[in-house]
Amino acid sequence: MAKMLVSDEARKEFPTLRRAFDEVNSTLQTKFSWEPEPIDWEYYRKGIGLRLVDMYKEAYDSIKVPQSVDNVTSQYKPTFDSLKKISTMTTDEYFEKHPELRKEV
């Protein structure tokens, strides 16, 4: 992977990949992590009646939405963090850390 980043094309494409990843990550962290607004059952009890609202509340309370468990982020986060560091390096800084690759270029 690091070898690809030394080409001009790879350097141009990597920020696009990073932005796409950040957008998806942001969406997953915000849209799918919120709790719904609580229902004001008392408000509906006053206007509709106790029995009917209580039936709906009981049905609502019985709904169990399974929560997804993230078992993979911890495996891939170090890789993405290291890629972010690489993307902010200049070519000279990169070759300083990896002198063996300068010979290949």
From TrEMBL:
Keywords: CF(0), Hydrogen ion transport, Ion transport, Membrane, Mitochondrion, Mitochondrion inner membrane, Transport
Signal peptide from the UniProt entry: none
InterPro entries (alphabetical): ATP_synth_F0_dsu_mt, ATP_synth_F0_dsu_sf_mt
Subcellular location(s) of the protein: Mitochondrion inner membrane
GO CC annotations on file: mitochondrial inner membrane; proton-transporting ATP synthase complex
GO molecular function: proton transmembrane transporter activity
Main location: mitochondrion
GO biological process: proton motive force-driven ATP synthesis
Membership in a protein family: Belongs to the ATPase d subunit family.
Protein name: Uncharacterized protein
Organism the protein comes from: Citrus clementina
Record lineage: Eukaryota, Viridiplantae, Streptophyta, Embryophyta, Tracheophyta
